[in-house]
Every structure is written in structure tokens, then in C-alpha cells.
Amino acid sequence: DVSVTGVSSTGATGSVTPLSNTFAVTVVSTGYGNKYYIDGVQQPTLTLTESNTYRFDQSDSSNGTGGGHPLRFSTTSDGTHGGGTQYTTGVVTSGTPGNAGAYTEITVAIGAPTLYYYCTNHSGMGGQANTPS
Description:
The protein has strands at residues 7-9, 16-18, 22-29, 34-38, 41-42, 46-47, 53-57, 71-74, 86-87, 91-94, 103-107, 115-119, 127-130. By secondary structure, it is mainly beta.
């Protein structure tokens, strides 16, 4: 068996098109504290489909302000700040937020629960990520 993720069939035999599953993450001070903006939208509810891989690009310099804003996942709203624990299934991180090449990547497991993205250093920055099959 060969498993291919991150591609979409065009319907033609043998033809595949890579999916763009990369989100640009920036951090904006809103007057109510720093908030994650995903592709320019403040704390959106995301849809992360099971078996797909998603990269959260944290190379923008705003991700490194105020001690840094590492994006992670939890099954609890606001993650460790909300009494939860970090969700690590299928999650890979690289680099330091605010520097070139920094990212958090998740390959959503089959049967994954609803997830919440959050900052490990600061509460109230993240949002919800639904994980439909």
C-alpha cells in the first residue's frame, strides 16, 4: 500500500495537484492583548480535514515579539492556559517563531478530536480547529 497525503486528484488518471495547506501566521496587538491572525483573519475557526497535512508558517517577525509565540494544539480551549495539555499527535515543529523557516505542522489523525490552537507563552491568542473526516 502507498499512502499519499497533501494531493488532490483532478479526475484524470495519474494527474495530481498539490494542495496549498499552508497558513500564514502573524501576531497583532489588538488592545486586548496579542492575537493570532491566520491568513490575515483574527483567530478564525479552522477546518483541518483528517489525513491532510497543514503547515502554520510562523516566519513573520511578529511571531517573535514579546518572548515569542509558539503555536501549538490542545483538546482544551486555550491549551495549557485553560487547564489542558499539548496535543502532539502528528505535530512537527521547526525553528524559532519570528525567524525564517519557523513553522508548526500537523497531519490530522483519523478520528482526531476538535482541536484548539494556542500560544504556549500567552493565553487568549488562539482559536478552534474543527477536524472533520
